[in-house]
Every structure is written in structure tokens, then in C-alpha cells.
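User: Teach me something about this protein's shape.
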Amino acid sequence: MLNGQSNSLIIDDEMKGSNLVSIILLTQNAQIPTYHLPNHVMSLIPKEIPREVILVHYNILDNSAYTDKKPGSTYHYENIGGKVRHLNVQGDFASAVMRGIALSAGKYILVMDADHPYSEETIPELFEELIANPNFIIVVSRFVEGARDQRMSLVQSTMSKVGKMIARYGLKVKNVQDPTSSCFAFSRNLVKDISFEGKGKEALLEILVKVKNKNAKVAVKEIPIKEQGAPSTKKIRFNRILNYLTAVWHIYRYGIKSKELQNANDVVEQKRHKSVLFLSKAGRFFTVGASGFLINFIVSYLLANVVSNVWYLQATLVGIMVSITTNFVLNKVWTFEDRDFSFRHFFKQYLTFLAFCSFGVVIQLSLVFVFVENFHIQYGISLIMAVCVASLGNFLLNKKFTFGEKIWE
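Assistant: First, the predicted structure itself:
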């Protein structure tokens, strides 16, 4: 707790016995963290505060970490009054964070990327803010006034802003400027009875979304980041972008939508049902497309070879129109199970279907040209990629607009 007169930390017997602080340090290094050693981090907390450090090594391929200490063991540091546990996790940052939280025993939890050059002020400031605001999530932010961190390139700055917009408008995380921070703190009771997946690097983002679903009144307080030095700027990696988008999509589907469900069994069942239904309709749509190709070939071939006065291009055009019509009827009846055959409704749907098919042809031709001319990809591979993109777009557009269904069902 805080002394009301001096704002300094005071410790009473009750706090000493129950207010254990768990500091979860994350590192990708097989031996020691780049910047923050566990015993030094513990020394930044007042000695009167019971504390522990869980040093989590993640993405360690050879399963070795801290060569002078056995992973999984606990070591006591008498001079600083705490203990350190060493742990290996075969996964990314978020899974390492969640594993560390699961193994921690503290009432208060501080998470820090030990390979990032946060200043020594960070841990004490986080801790003081958390004690003063136990129902807040405290975030060390790069985007609030007073932040002092490494400069980002224009590309990095743009990607960071795009990531913030996705979190703000896609996941409704509007109460924090830096939802992807790797340094934050919170009270254990805020995450009680919440199940976390731990995907990619977005540990804080998942915590923010799921805690908000549980208790919309939970607030976030951001403190400006301060760094020890000015490390070289890391390059933007495609995997980092892909992992972020994957994590956002995963959190969106299983975080935001879980608010509307009563229990975890409903979530699993709804996910399975929608996935099966979506894949079933996609399979039917592409099966109909394959049948349309066959019908197109048969009609065009017979007209061009049996009817002597039909030009082969005319035969091809007739074959295309017949196959589009059969595709439309089969998709209407079989794929989307639409039984409304009133003339106006049927004709409107047919014209919409025809328009999207034509649009799909334009997309396919454009993609083939771009892949071959700009990216110098072999024609066969370019054609396959273009057909896949155009077919998927055709399916989604017709599903949404021609037959009036939601995309994911």
C-alpha cells in the first residue's frame, strides 16, 4: 500500500504475508537475458516486499537455458530476499507469458521482456502504480507523452499505427495507446477464471480483451517508456506481421464473441458448427464450379463439332453462358439452399451472380498479369494462385451479396 502523506511504500504484516509480487521475465537467449538479470530485477523491489522471479526462456530450440542452473529449479537469493525459478517454454512470447502467469504465486504480476533495454526506473514505477491502482492494468507505453525509446523507421511507424487501428476498431481496445507492449503489470484477481490461449507475441492484447469481457470497468493506466540506450532498430519481419494478424483474428473469434456465450462448451460448439458449415458450403460451391467447367466444355465442343454453321467462338460463348446458368441454379438450390424462385428475386440474383462471375474473370486475368510481369512467377503457378484467389472471392461475394448470408456460417 502507499503512505498517504509521502506516497512511499509501506509494508505491514498482512502485506508481508499475502502480497507476494511475481516478476515474469521473458528471454529468447539460451543462457542469460540481454539486459535484465533476475537477481538485479529483484533488487529493484523494496526488500520488505516478498517477491519471486520466473525467468522464462522461449523459442529455445536445443532445450538448454541458463547453463549454470537446471531449468525448472528454484534458487534463493538471501541478500535480496527472493527466489528465482528458471523455465523453458517451446513457444512464442505470449505462450511464455501465460505459462509464467500459470506458475506464479503472486498477488501482483509484473511482466517484462528481459531482452529489451528498459531503464531501471521501470520496475519500481510499475510496482508503485500497481499498488496505488490495484484494479488497473499498468502498461509501459511507447505512445504516451514523455516516452523515450528507440527511433522507428517510417515503415515501422506506419505498421505500428496500423496495428493500433486494428486493435482499436477490430477488437474495441480503445482505452490504451500501446496494446502490444511487452512490459505491463496487473493484480492476479483481474485474470481469475479467464482462459488464455497465448498466441504469437500479443500477450497484453489478449489480456486486455478478455479482462474487458469479464469486467468492462477495468481501467488501463499507461506510463511512458524509458530505455537504457538506443539500440539498433530491428527490421520489419513478415512473420511478425503475420503472427500479429493471426493473433488478432484468434482473439476476435474466441475473445469478443465469447462475451455472448454462457460457457466454454458453447464457444467450442459454435466454432465447430460455423467452421463445418462454412467449409461445407465452400466445398459445394467449388464442386459446382468444377461441374460448370465440364458443362462448358461439353456444350462448346458439341456445338462446334456437331452443328456445322456455328463458329467455335460462338460455341464457346454459349458454353460459358450455359455453365454460368447451371452454376447459378445449382448453387442456389444445393449450396445455399435458397428456394425462392419468384421471377423478380430469381432474375435479380442471376444478374448479381453473373456480375460477380465477370468480376472474378477480371481479377483472375489481372492477377496472372501482375504475377507474371511484375513478380516473374511462372505462368502455371501464377494461374493456380490467380484461380484460387478469384474463386475464393467469387464464393465470398456471392455468399454475402447474391444469397444474403453471413460470411462465417
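Now, about its shape. The longest helix spans residues 264-306. Residues 1-17, 63-80 have pLDDT under 50 and may be disordered. If you'd like, I can walk through any region in more detail.
User: That's plenty for now, thanks!
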